[in-house]
Specification:
Blueprint lengths: L7 H7 L11 E10 L9 E3 L7 E3 L14 E5 L2 E4 L13 E6 L2 E6 L5 E3 L2 E3 L1 E5 L3 E4 L3 E9 L29 H15 L4 E4 L6 H10 L8 E5 L8 H6 L15 H5 L4 E5 L6 H6 L1 H4 L4 E2 L8 E2 L3 E6 L8 H4 L4 E4 L10 H15 L1 H4 L4 E2 L1 H9 L5 H15 L4 E2 L3 H9 L12 H10 L4 H7 L5 H10 L6
Helix pairs in contact: 2-3, 9-12, 14-15, 15-16
Length: 471
């Protein structure tokens, strides 16, 4: 296997890419999301020729010099490293003829292994971006559109780059372009001497991102304190944040430094900051200025804390008090799993490794995933993101009889009834949004569910688009 630091120029020539293909151009690729014989290849991509030339997928190098071979690569920032030909004995040497289209590809089975496209058995068919090719019980490929090349890393440290397909030094896992963009955004925020706002749906890893910001910053040797803002008692928020003097407000009350005092020199992470009422957000404004001034309850003197606040919310940022939001000059937006589906199989494998460490008696016997489980998680919406993926994994383990984790029974039954893939719902209209909010008593989470949206975060985006103020 070629070194991952092989020059891009050499690799472009090796893959016979046409001249003039720029790093900004997006192309159609096939990503390996499951392999029976070579599971370490999950995440590798095949770049479909933009010149319209067909290529052959199969085992080994191929016998016909006039028939281009579909080559697979490990794509990373500034790197497109070729990998070895398939060695799986279950694949024919000439297995699948692939012809590129503007928005996908036409595939034709020429080998012995059966072919399914999105669960439908066939001998040939068209695949579009988001579709799945299953060479029966041997290989599963996901068709995606992604940049031809990823730009080089500017700020993310090379020492933290993990082996292909593994979590990095901060626990972030993914080989998709969005995952590498996320790492760069985190590194930028870490180097900036400013407070940080992390945006993302539930289960996208907001605390993980916050810890990475801390670890990559000059504050990494100091404290990292984490609290959920939604759990701060309404009447005690000031005491929790700023602390209190001894015997205040009641005799015998011990002196407390407060979260801001304890985080001096380090990082304070407040999750669900959008749940903090606007009047309480206002209490933090002075402490968030450059001097970090604050007062403990019951004290007259002013204290200072050189802390960084990393706050997280699954709300639209416009839901925050405008002058509070203005203090966060660095923002990180976490992509949900629906936007980086090629990372889902890697996350699933990582969650199994974690389950084995935590519960070896339960998870220790499992060694692989049924391909239909993988097909499900790369095609169906996962509104709960990693939490939902983890829940599905545990349900699968609970129902699986041998070392292979299968699709949970209720999802198998649903697939047997209809395997038409994700339901494409039209975007709700302005009137439908108003009606849903009114019917649900202005509860955004309930209205989002009634509208069939993946999360309340999706409804917040639509409300912002239509300039609907938050109830």
């Amino acid at each position: 296997m070629a070194s991952p630091r092989t020059s891009v120029t050499t690799l472009v020539a090796a893959s016979e890419r046409p001249d003039g293909l720029s790093s900004a151009e997006h192309i159609t690729t096939l990503v390996i999301v499951w392999s029976a014989a070579e599971p370490a290849r999950i995440g590798e991509v095949a770049v479909l020729a933009s010149n319209g030339m067909s290529s052959m997928l199969g085992r080994g190098e191929g016998d016909d010099a006039d028939e281009p071979r579909l080559r697979f690569f490990r794509q990373r920032p500034s790197v497109l490293a070729p990998t070895e030909p398939f060695a799986s004995p279950g694949l024919s040497r000439r297995q699948l003829l692939v012809h590129p289209l503007d928005d996908g590809a036409t595939v034709e089975r020429v080998g012995q292994c059966g072919l399914e496209i999105n669960g439908e058995r066939c001998d040939a068919g068209n695949v579009r971006h988001g579709d799945v090719i299953h060479l029966r019980n041997e290989l599963v490929l996901l068709c995606v559109r992604r940049p031809a090349f990823m730009p080089p890393l500017r700020l993310f440290p090379s020492a933290a780059i993990p082996p292909f397909g593994s979590p990095d030094a901060f626990g972030i896992l993914g080989e998709s372009p969005l995952s590498w963009q996320l790492r760069e955004s985190i590194a930028f925020a870490a180097k900036a001497a400013t407070h940080v706002l992390v945006l993302g749906e539930s289960g996208t890893g907001k605390e993980l991102a916050a810890r990475a910001v801390h670890a990559l910053s000059v504050r990494s040797k100091k404290a990292f304190l984490a609290r959920n803002a939604a759990t701060l008692p309404a009447g005690l928020v000031d005491a929790e944040l700023f602390g209190n003097a001894k015997n205040y407000p009641n005799p015998g009350m011990p002196e407390r430094a407060g979260l801001i005092g304890e985080a001096d020199g380090g990082t304070l992470f407040l999750d669900e900051i959008g749940e903090l009422p606007s009047e309480l957000q206002a209490h933090l404004l002075r402490a968030l200025d450059s001097d970090g001034e604050y007062q403990r309850l019951g004290e007259a003197q002013t204290r200072r804390s050189s802390f960084r606040l990393v706050a997280a919310t699954n709300r639209d940022p416009s839901a925050l008090k405008h002058d509070f939001l203005a203090r966060f000059t660095a923002q990180i937006e976490l992509p949900n799993l629906d936007l980086r589906r090629e990372d889902v199989p890697l996350l699933l494998a990582h969650l199994l490794v974690r389950a084995k460490k935590r519960s070896p008696e339960v998870a220790g016997r499992f060694t692989r995933f049924d391909p239909h489980l993988v097909i499900h998680v790369v095609r169906q919406p996962l509104p709960g993101n990693v939490r939902e993926l983890d829940s599905l994994l545990w349900k699968g383990m609970a129902e699986s009889a041998n070392e292979t984790i299968t699709l949970p029974r209720h999802l198998r039954e649903r697939r047997d009834v209809s395997d038409a893939g994700p339901v494409e719902r039209p975007e709700p209209t302005l009137q439908e949004i108003h009606d849903a909010l009114a019917a649900q008593g202005n509860s955004v989470p309930k209205a989002a569910k009634a509208l069939g949206l993946s999360s309340r975060y999706a409804l917040y985006r639509l409300m912002k688009k239509h300039e609907i103020s938050e109830p």
